[in-house]
Design brief:
about 0% strand, globular
């Protein structure tokens, strides 16, 4: 399923193809949500255009190492091998810290 989605994002440009949904928050309010531009950024990343991907959604691109670290920790035994690292990045308050960062990004992307 993931490979099929990646194939679609590689072959079809979300900027020009009508099959990709528009952000309801953007349509209703005119402001970008933290996820706005993610589809276009994924398309650009799959074509190795990191600068363009960062332009569309810099937060998503910057968060990818964190996501990959989480996948490694959860599914490839990193949690057992790196307990301190796991606690630091995925411990008790990590969700709150991430939420604060997302809200800051949301506000700043609509101000700047």
């Amino acid at each position: 399923m993931l490979l099929a989605a990646l194939y679609l994002f590689y072959k079809l440009n979300p900027e020009t193809q009508p099959i990709f949904p528009k952000c309801p928050f953007l349509v209703i309010t005119g402001y970008e949500c933290p996820g706005c531009g993610s589809q276009r950024a994924i398309h650009q990343l799959l074509h190795l255009n990191i600068g363009a991907a960062f332009k569309y959604n810099g937060f998503m691109v910057a968060a990818l190492p964190y996501v990959f670290l989480g996948i490694y920790m959860e599914y490839f035994g990193g949690k057992q091998r790196n307990v301190k690292l796991y606690r630091f990045f995925f411990g008790r308050y990590s969700a709150l810290v991430i939420l604060v960062i997302i809200i800051q990004y949301w506000v700043l992307r609509n101000i700047l």
